[in-house]
């Protein structure tokens, strides 16, 4: 994703002068986003792009956010988004997302809180990211992390290696009745902040 052409950005400073940045850009009918760790001059240390697809016959790899706005809560910026996606066999799901940075005094992180109102049981529901090897330094993958400590209940973290290296957060909530609203939450952290969580 082109960092310079992002429509919305949130950033959180790290103790070493670098920044965690989440950037949203519109691609087709929805927003895609990237989570990056950047030096003070804006150069890239590590980057993960949310994976999207346009084939409406499959389950979305990441939330299909189509409307996004920047709001303020407790004097802190928060991005709020909504979107929908449907197939003939499933019906239409309605997504909502909030994105914010951790407050000062807490480990540098970007927080995601996502929910989907599902008409029936989804085959897949969650968020998927991949690294762009050409833009990630050899040690960069260790600068930005998602660990089991950042995942809430009813979610599972999966990682993949190779050229498509990245990770996904799968929502595994199993309600008794449908339609139902399913929720998953996670944080992308500055790697050195992990020690602060112990």
Helix share bin = under 10%
Overall spatial form: globular
Summing up helix and strand content along with how strands pair, one would put the structural category as: mainly beta
State the end-to-end distance: 33 Å
Sheet with the most strands: spatial strand order = 1-2-3-4-9-12-11
Task: Please provide a written account of the structure.
The chain is 2% helix and 52% strand. It is mainly beta and 198 residues long. Strands 1-2-3-4-9-12-11 form a 7-stranded antiparallel sheet, with no helix packed on it. A 6-stranded antiparallel sheet has the order 5-6-7-8-13-10, with no helix packed on it. β11 and β12 form a beta hairpin.
What is the compact description of this entry?
This protein has one helix and 13 strands, in the order βββββββββββββα. The chain has 198 residues and is mainly beta.
What is the topology?
Elements (H helix, E strand, L loop, with lengths): L7 E6 L5 E9 L2 E9 L5 E7 L16 E7 L2 E12 L3 E11 L7 E10 L7 E6 L12 E2 L9 E6 L5 E6 L8 E11 L3 H4 L1
Antiparallel strand pairs: 1-2, 2-3, 3-4, 4-9, 5-6, 6-7, 7-8, 8-13, 9-12, 10-13, 11-12
Characteristic terms for this protein:
mainly beta, six-stranded antiparallel β-sheet, 1 helix, 198 residues, seven-stranded antiparallel β-sheet
């Amino acid at each position: 994703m082109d960092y310079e052409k992002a429509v919305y950005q949130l950033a959180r400073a790290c103790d070493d002068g670098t920044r965690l940045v989440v950037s949203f850009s519109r691609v087709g009918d929805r927003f895609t986003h990237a989570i990056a760790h950047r030096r003070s001059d804006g150069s890239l240390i590590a980057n993960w792009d949310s994976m999207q697809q346009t084939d409406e016959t499959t389950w979305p790899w990441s939330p299909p956010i189509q409307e996004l706005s920047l709001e303020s809560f407790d004097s802190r910026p928060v991005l709020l988004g909504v979107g929908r996606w449907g197939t003939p066999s499933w019906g239409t799901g309605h997504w909502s997302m909030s994105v914010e940075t951790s407050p000062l005094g807490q480990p540098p992180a970007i927080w995601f809180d996502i929910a989907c109102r599902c008409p029936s049981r989804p085959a897949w529901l969650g968020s998927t990211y991949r690294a762009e090897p050409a833009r990630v330094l050899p040690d960069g993958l260790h600068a930005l992390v998602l660990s089991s400590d950042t995942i809430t209940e009813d979610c599972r973290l999966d990682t993949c290696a190779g050229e498509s290296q990245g990770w996904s957060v799968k929502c595994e909530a199993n309600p008794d009745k449908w339609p139902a609203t399913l929720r998953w939450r996670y944080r992308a952290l500055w790697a050195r902040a992990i020690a602060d969580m112990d």
